[in-house]
From TrEMBL:
<keyword id="KW-0963">Cytoplasm</keyword>
<dbReference type="GO" id="GO:0016301">
    <property type="term" value="F:kinase activity"/>
</dbReference>
<protein>
    <recommendedName>
        <fullName>Homoserine kinase</fullName>
        <ecNumber>2.7.1.39</ecNumber>
    </recommendedName>
</protein>
<dbReference type="InterPro" id="IPR006204">
    <property type="entry name" value="GHMP_kinase_N_dom"/>
</dbReference>
<keyword id="KW-0808">Transferase</keyword>
<dbReference type="InterPro" id="IPR000870">
    <property type="entry name" value="Homoserine_kinase"/>
</dbReference>
<dbReference type="Pfam" id="PF08544">
    <property type="entry name" value="GHMP_kinases_C"/>
</dbReference>
<keyword id="KW-0418">Kinase</keyword>
<keyword id="KW-0791">Threonine biosynthesis</keyword>
<dbReference type="InterPro" id="IPR036554">
    <property type="entry name" value="GHMP_kinase_C_sf"/>
</dbReference>
<feature type="domain" description="GHMP kinase C-terminal">
    <location>
        <begin position="197"/>
        <end position="272"/>
    </location>
</feature>
<dbReference type="InterPro" id="IPR013750">
    <property type="entry name" value="GHMP_kinase_C_dom"/>
</dbReference>
<feature type="binding site">
    <location>
        <begin position="83"/>
        <end position="93"/>
    </location>
    <ligand>
        <name>ATP</name>
    </ligand>
</feature>
<keyword id="KW-0028">Amino-acid biosynthesis</keyword>
<comment type="pathway">
    <text>Amino-acid biosynthesis; L-threonine biosynthesis; L-threonine from L-aspartate: step 4/5.</text>
</comment>
<dbReference type="Pfam" id="PF00288">
    <property type="entry name" value="GHMP_kinases_N"/>
</dbReference>
<dbReference type="InterPro" id="IPR006203">
    <property type="entry name" value="GHMP_knse_ATP-bd_CS"/>
</dbReference>
């Protein structure tokens, strides 16, 4: 086995009204550098960890057991650029990394559909799994025996992430949502989502930004949990952003702006925010990828 690297992008789910269905792959990555060894060794966070207690390796083991594969012993070095519990899909990226590690070590030749199905089974929903696998902006849902998805790669926007120091667990952000929505309210919320997708297809980015900021499904209920929610949205709009939305369940927020304006908006937003990483990010268009380490 030649040494190889698995790279999996971060992702931002929801994108305003695309609740639990839209996800965008971002240029922050989990990397796994893999090589032959006499026994399994997993390095993460700068030190050796027990593979039995490591989340990625547990996923790898589950996949191998599902498909009856014996995996050769290996050394794995994890490098993670994705902040945890910040709404950037870190758990989905780790799941995809674990699936791909089993796929490569066991020569399983899994299809995209099998990877998506297994990842969704573990994560519970495909909105972060799909962009981590496929790259670009994906729209996906769960049917009884299928997880259909559509990918958009040709998005001509710059984006900035505002990543606070505080964490927000997904279950906390999920608990603040209503159990049901009144029919008329749900219809309006769905219309916002439809318009957001149509705006992306037609490259009407001003309309896309407007829809980002008119979500009814989750942001009205979560904004109280998010530091500087209104300030970030207001100042980003003043600096030239089309619109700003929560990344996943938050607390990270994401602004979209005309291509080429990202550095200008970033510099302005850095002045407005203390205790934040303000990052100009690329849209990842490849999804999970394999490269040889020579």
């Amino acid at each position: 086995m030649m040494p190889f690297r698995i790279s999996v992008p971060a992702s931002s789910a929801n994108l305003g009204p695309g609740f639990d269905s839209m996800g965008l792959a971002l240029g922050l990555y989990i990397h796994l550098d893999v090589e032959c060894a006499d026994q399994n060794v997993f390095f993460a966070h700068g030190s050796e960890e027990s593979e039995e207690n490591h989340f990625i390796w547990n996923i790898t083991t589950q996949v191998a057991e599902r498909y009856g594969a014996a995996l050769p012993p290996c050394k794995v070095q994890e490098t993670n650029e994705i902040p945890l519990a910040r709404g950037l899909g870190s758990s989905a990226s780790a799941i995809v990394a674990g699936i791909e590690l089993a796929n490569q070590l066991g020569n399983l030749q899994l299809t995209d559909e099998q990877k998506l199905a297994f990842g969704t089974e573990i994560e519970g929903h495909p909105d972060n799994i799909a962009p981590a696998l496929f790259g670009g902006l994906t729209i996906s849902t769960m049917l009884k025996n299928d997880i259909p998805s559509v990918r958009l790669n040709d998005i001509e926007l710059d984006l900035i992430a505002y990543i606070p120091e505080v964490e927000l667990k997904t279950e906390v952000a999920r608990d603040c949502l209503p159990d049901t929505y009144e029919r008329g309210y749900a219809a309006r919320a769905s219309a916002m989502s439809n318009l957001a997708v149509a705006a992306l297809y037609t490259k009407d980015y001003a309309l896309f930004g407007k829809m980002l900021e008119n979500d009814l499904f989750h942001e009205p209920f979560r904004k109280a949990l998010i530091p500087n929610f209104d300030l970030i949205r207001e100042k980003a709009k003043e600096a030239g952003a089309y619109g700003t939305a929560l990344s996943g369940a938050g607390p990270t927020m994401l602004s979209f702006m005309p291509k080429g304006n990202g550095e200008k908006v970033k510099n302005e937003m850095v002045k407005q925010l203390n205790g934040y990483q303000v990052q100009l990010l690329e849209i990842d268009t490849k999804g999970v990828s394999i490269s040889q380490n020579i």
